[in-house]
Amino acid sequence: MASLTVHHLRRSQSERVIWLCEELGIPYHLECHDRVPPLMLAPDSLRQLHWSGTAPVIQDGEVTLAESTAIFEYILNKHGNGQLVVSPTDSNYADYLLWFHQANGSLMPALMSIMLGRMKGDSDESPTQAIMQQRINANLQAMDRQLEKLSYLAGDEFTAADCMSVWGLTTFRLFHPFDLTEYPNIVSYLQRIGQRDAYQRAVQKGDPGMSPILSAVPPPTSI
Questions:
Q1: PANTHER family in the record, alphabetically (predicted)?
Q2: The whole model's pTM is what?
């Protein structure tokens, strides 16, 4: 019986933790939680698990842990057996660290700021929205340049940095559609990701029936 339990909020960034476990091939138990309308926020069941009140949350024996990057480091170090990480002695170690932290450190905060600003009715030309859009553009441009020369973000081998990075470019666009046409290398990368068996399993286990957005232009949809 698996000691590791992954708590997943449907259509949320906790998708990444399921995917990581599938890539590592480790046993885990999956508990899914549904969003509460009309605001589609996390239910009280997650708040009862951890003060953060949202996913991802994992339980492993007596440990209850939140925060995506903390969970990734915990699983990789405790259960990963050296898989999907880059050694400090490798030449691409700095790239691995950058892209491992870039998603939640830079891209997602800017995307969330734009999305919430639009929900409040802020104009895209407002100073705050314009600054956040510039940050998004800079992040996507850097990612596209990286993927022009490499198959994956840290090199030609798939790593946990990829697991961390993809959700903001795919499932998040169900909430906040944006166009990736200007970034052909990112789009090609997403197509490669979409062919991975572990990614397909993770999406269908966490969100059965959901089609991840792997194209440049997201289809018309709603949450």
A1: GLUTATHIONE S-TRANSFERASE 1, GLUTATHIONE S-TRANSFERASE-RELATED
A2: 0.94
